[in-house]
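Sanity check

After download, print the first record. It should look like this:
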Amino acid sequence: MLPKIAVFAMGGTIAMAGQGARGVTPSLGADALVEAVPQLAEVAAVEAETFRLLPSPEVTIPDLFALADAIEHAVAQGAHGAVVTHGTDTMEETAFVLDRILALDAPVVVTGAMRNPTLAGPDGPANLLNAVRLAAHGPARGLGVMVVMNDEIHAARFVQKAETSNPAAFRSRPLGPLGWFAEGAVRLGGLPGPRHALAVARDAEPVPVALLTVTLGDDGRLIDHALDAGYRGIVMECTGGGHAAHWVADKLVDAAGRVPVVMASRTGAGEMLRRTYDFKGSEIDLLARGLISAGWLDGLKARLLLTLLLMSGADDATIRATFAAWVDPAPAP
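Expected structure tokens:
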């Protein structure tokens, strides 16, 4: 018997169709996506559901909590794994949130397309077929949520979209892809460390967390505006390994006395420094004055992790301990 795989369609480029001369919009449901790939019938018994039909910037955390519930129900009903088709603009964020809230051994694979079905050489069908192959692959159990694009397999904790339209848009730094596909076979080469799901009530209200970026000549006034607007946390994408001008650093420290303030790197990759530079506004200074290091999480993922922690009711000590687990030598949760 073929393994049963649940496919949940969320919209995105893979589901786009033309609307006159003005471009494409999400139009294709799960059944249409599956029917376009007849080879799926050789890989798995697919049960498809159109869960949302959205451009991915409109996907919300409540949408992802509802999706997690649906995935858990499908697995409880005998699905070997699940595939989520999704827009690529926020794919890395959706994969990361699912990886943080799903406590499943069953493989969960997020995929999509860079070229919509109206273009020559759309990549959606091949990505969907590979995603189902991975979800049905026994050794993929226990690896958490993964992203499949362009014949590569990425772990949710590492994956980033790095190009606007190139089919090879996704990368994982510093680890690289977990594996690849060759002649229809799944190849897993590198495995991520242990993972632990966060206990967040699925009916919890989303908590606003601001994501800001340090830039040359910035006066830091957005930090004040974020606090005045009621943001419950701030993630600041600092320059380099965790640096800001001293006047911005003072505002960040003041903010850290009111809400959790996490510093990530605006470069998007690489571990935050902890003990290299010691000027006012350096990583040594900011950490000593109460900021929290994102470790090797980029700003997008650090914001989502802080959001989920605040939604769970975590106190300051728990927030600091959770982020500390993303810094060597402790394994990432």
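If your output differs, re-run the checksum step. Summary of this record's structure: DSSP finds nine helices and 16 strands in the chain.
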